C-alpha cells in the first residue's frame, strides 16, 4: 500500500514533466483483407476459409497505432495482445512505401527505424495518409530531441 501511495505522489509531482498526452490513434485499413474476404466467400461451404477470413478481419480490427506527445504505441493481437512503444527522440529514420494496389485506396506502409536495441523497427501497415505521417514525424522527432536534450550519433568501424 505504501509503494502505491509513493508512486502516486511522485507521479502527481512530476505530472507535467513525464506526462505523455495522446494525440491521435489510427488503424490499418480492411482493404488489406480483400483477398481473404473473397476466399472466405468463395469457400463458404468449407469451414476453414471463412474462419481464416474472420480471423484476418479481427486481426486488422484490433491493431491500433497510438501517437502520443513523446512516443508511438502499437497494440495488436486478437487473442494474445502485444504492445510496443517507441520513443520519438530515438527515431533515426522514417520511410514510406506506397505499392500500386495500396495507392489505389490511398494507403501506404510507414517504416520507422530507431536506435532502440529491443525495438529497432516499427511498421505501420496499410495506414492512410502515410506521407503526412512521415512529414509530421520528422518535425516531432526534432522537437522531441530538443525537449529531451538528446543528440543522435552513429559510430562506424572503418
Short note summarizing the structure:
With 158 residues, the protein is α+β, with helices and mostly antiparallel strands. The protein is 39% helix and 28% strand. The termini are far apart.
Note poorly predicted spans: 1-10
- Tertiary shape: elongated
Distance separating the two termini = 55 Å
Q: What is the string of helix and strand elements?
A: HHEHHEEEEHEEH
Largest sheet: 4 strands, antiparallel
Secondary structure tally: strands = 7
- In what order do the strands lie side by side in the largest sheet? 1-2-3-4
Count of spatially separate domains: 1
Structure report:
By secondary structure, the protein is α+β, with helices and mostly antiparallel strands. The protein contains 6 helices and 7 strands; from the N terminus they run H-H-E-H-H-E-E-E-E-H-E-E-H. The protein has helices at about 1-15, 15-20, 35-40, 50-60, 100-105, 130-150; strands at about 20-25, 65-70, 70-75, 80-85, 90-95, 105-115, 120-130. The strands form 2 sheets. The chain has a 4-stranded antiparallel sheet with strand order 1-2-3-4. A 3-stranded antiparallel sheet has the order 5-6-7, with helices on one face. Strand 3 (about 70-75) and strand 4 (about 80-85) form a beta hairpin. The longest helix has 19 residues, at about 130-150.
Strand and helix map with partners:
Blueprint: H1 2-13, H2 15-18, E1 22-26, H3 34-42, H4 48-61, E2 64-68, E3 71-76, E4 82-87, E5 91-97, H5 100-103, E6 107-114, E7 121-128, H6 130-148
Antiparallel strand pairs: 1-2, 2-3, 3-4, 5-6, 6-7
Helix pairs in contact: 3-4
Amino acid at each position: 500500500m505504501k509503494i502505491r501511495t509513493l508512486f502516486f505522489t511522485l507521479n502527481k509531482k512530476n505530472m507535467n514533466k513525464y506526462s505523455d498526452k495522446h494525440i491521435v490513434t489510427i488503424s490499418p485499413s480492411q482493404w488489406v483483407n480483400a483477398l481473404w474476404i473473397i476466399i472466405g466467400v468463395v469457400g463458404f461451404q468449407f469451414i476453414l476459409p471463412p474462419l481464416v477470413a474472420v480471423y484476418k478481419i479481427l486481426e486488422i480490427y484490433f491493431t491500433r497505432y497510438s501517437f502520443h506527445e513523446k512516443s508511438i504505441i502499437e497494440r495488436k493481437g486478437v487473442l494474445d495482445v502485444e504492445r510496443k512503444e517507441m520513443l520519438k527522440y530515438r527515431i533515426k529514420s522514417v520511410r514510406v512505401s506506397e505499392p500500386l494496389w495500396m495507392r489505389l485506396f490511398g494507403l501506404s506502409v510507414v517504416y520507422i527505424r530507431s536506435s532502440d536495441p529491443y525495438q529497432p523497427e516499427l511498421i505501420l501497415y496499410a495506414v492512410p495518409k502515410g506521407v503526412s505521417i512521415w512529414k509530421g514525424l520528422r518535425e516531432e522527432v526534432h522537437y522531441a530531441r530538443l525537449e529531451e536534450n538528446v543528440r543522435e550519433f552513429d559510430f562506424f568501424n572503418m
